[in-house]
Amino acid sequence: MSDTNVEFSLKPKDFKGKVDPDWCPGCGDFGVLSGLQRAVAELGLHPHQILTISGIGCSSNFPGFFNSYGMHTLHGRSLPHASGAKLANHEMNVIVTGGDGDGYGIGGNHFTHTSRRNLNILYIVMDNQIYGLTTGQISPTSEVGMKTKSTPFGSVELPINPIASAITAGATWVARGYTGNMKQLTRLMIEGMQHNGFALLDIFSPCVTFNKVNTYQFFKQRVQPLEDIEHDSSDWKQAIEKAMVWGDVIHTGLFFETNARLTLEEQEPVLDEGGPLAYRELGLSKEETERVVSRMM
Amino acid sequence: MGKFDYVISIGGAAGQGIATPGNILARLFARQGIHMYAYNAYQSIIRGGHSFLTVRCSNEQVRTHGDVIDLLICLNQDTMDRHLEHMRDGTAVIYNSNTINPGEPADGVQLCPMDVKELAGKGANKLMQNTVAIAVACQLIGVEFSALEDVIDFQFSGKSEELVAENVRIAKGAYDHSAATFQPASQQMPTGGEALAVWTGNQAFAMAAAGAGVKFYCAYPMSPSTGILHWMAANARELGIMVRQVEDEISVICMTIGAAHAGCRSMCATSGGGFALMTEGIGEAGMMEIPIVVVDVQRAGPSTGVPTKTEQGDLWQALGASQGDFPKLILAPSSPLDGFQTIPDVFNLTDKYQLPAIILSDLLISDETSTIDPKLLDMHPIIDRGELITEAGEEAGSYERYKFTESGISPRALPGIPGYEHVVASDEHMPSGILISDEFTHPHKRRAMMEKRQQKMTGLLAELPPPVIMGAPDAEVTLVGWGSTADVIQESIEQLAAEGVVANHLHFKWMVPFHSDEATELLSSCKRTIIIENNYTGLFHRYLRGETGFTVDGHIRKYDGEPFKPKHITAAVQDQLAGGDAISVPYEEIIV
Hints:
The complex is a heterodimer. Chain A is α/β, with parallel strands linked by helices. Chain A has a single domain (12-294), classed as Rossmann fold. Chain A is built from eleven helices and eight strands. In chain B, helix 17 (539-548) links the parallel strand 22 and strand 23. In chain B, helix 5 packs antiparallel against helix 6 (161-181), helix 9 packs parallel to helix 10 (272-288) and helix 15 (486-498) packs across helix 18 (566-577). The chains are: A alpha/beta, B alpha/beta.
């Protein structure tokens, strides 16, 4: 059972996994890993209080490099695993980590429905706009015209807009980070963890091996933190408008936040009392079974 | 009093309210202690088409819908046109004479025309013909009017008092008219039995899971499995079960695995198409060693197939569910009661051996309504979660999730315990959970993990009861079946005995792991073997041959969507014993 009375706090290095990351040198995912290690340490969490869940892909190897409970699941399926786990033990801090192909492509259906379900989960997407582990094909966030091994003449499909999609699907906290701005990224991770509801943190995490377009240089010239300009994150219309900006300027930061909706856990009477389902006594009382049988007579 | 064994069929279009008279009859028989089994032949349509509900009732246990119809209730002309030809001497037909022409019955068939307009009054609801028909049926078989009144009262209790009074008034008019006009039915219903309960197989499975401590149930609606979701949803809050309907069956299986990993006993159910979507997850549960229970309520396939018809067509889908070679438990219960009594064991076994279990039901078991003795409904089974770590102990800090052990079972720590942090992975992994699918790839480690997982099957097989032959040990023919055909085979064996043919019965429930040696020995001891399956290519026959090397003598197969009737099997066995073809495909007389 979660020991929530742990007094002492930990350092980021205490969240180092059993093995070192096997990402390419220079990969943006290193920044995401160190950012999250800093964030959870700052929040005073301990490894046993966290369940990190991923799908499949370079960035989905994340749970193996992070010291906590973890599930490294199927391609595209991190969110339903996380939803089941969160409902079974709503006292765990559930963090989902993965890539753009995993989350917005093969897992796109779950992304939509998990957003509207509003479980208290932080979903971190390391968005590099390319399929890396399969050695460089377009992803759902690749730009029109992008030439890859699967699109030698350039992609003709419009990329998905994760920020706008999450807002319209019902996510209650939607932000974008960039591994070139660690201060902002760590702060967003902390806020995303603190948000009570489904939080999407899409992170520009450049793939230095296969994406020669959306490089650090590319983002450095374009990113503009929303905190530096006028933006009301409680206004979904403004949020969508900022999310649709893509060109010489690309916004990062908190696009949208609402605390007006209850989480699924809060709306589910089964979780009202008795602690996490996973740790409850099994079996039914005599009164319960007698009632069940009496309705069959 | 002799044996009461009487079959009432009700036919009409979807939307004509065929379910209501069916429910009234089921409840009525159950309360009088009369055993009942109802088979509903219907179509995937909400309005129109043809539905045909067959209710067989008896003062003894009854588990098939039988071979004949004793009383036909026609709610429309189509029913009369389709089924009057099945009525023989001594039977009766009830119909609304305002709207239905009877046609030419066989000699000795009593026609019971009812002037519904006259009885119900001018402005009466169209559904009142159902009340009229049920009242006449009850009168013909000698049910006291007060018993009918009680059930009408119960059936409409959620509605207005006026509606109850109206139905009772109309029923009384019809009942009295019948008593004054028609001959009593060929059999009269006995009274005085102890009240029985009514359920479907899906309800039986849901109840069993609830009793076994399931705390998480997840589904996407798919006929004919949806009854489990409905029961779970209705009872969830009261029994403390998390029930979710989610976006697709992929999400269903993944949520089930997520909840199971977190520590809940978790179950999901679907039919073949949804099961196909779940298969990758089943392999994942095998790889991560997470206990889950998946119910596949088979319907006629492939693809969308015939959603409202039955088939034993998914055996190989279950056998081959997911890529790779990994341990799983597969079983096919033979009846709602068998499923009810077995499911707690399935949860214990999946917990102990940390693997996915697949329960192969089918429409015939899951969807049909029958009575059950409430004394058999023990919902307090033994709960054994195996080697489950729920609090910190000596291994804190050095815990290995996939530790090598003699049994292959590694103690499973639930997320949330300090010092037991680990990652479960769909990639191949070391005892610690660290992947060996990439830079740590190592053939010896891979071999050791494969053997660790598969070692669990040895222990599991030893816990499963070996197959046994039921009935006469030296029978001239052994009928071999699996899953839902058990009861119809049993009834056919009784029919064969009456014809002087001694047959016995070898029935398989536990599919994987399989008691190959015991099955081979039993089959080799049989004089002659005929295997009975609801599919085209003899799916179980091929599996059995693979596991035993034994080839049976004959086959009886049905793949038209309707279940076997006892007479189908009886006739086919007799034909094969007389030198007929080794593969019999019975003809279905009832066209729905």
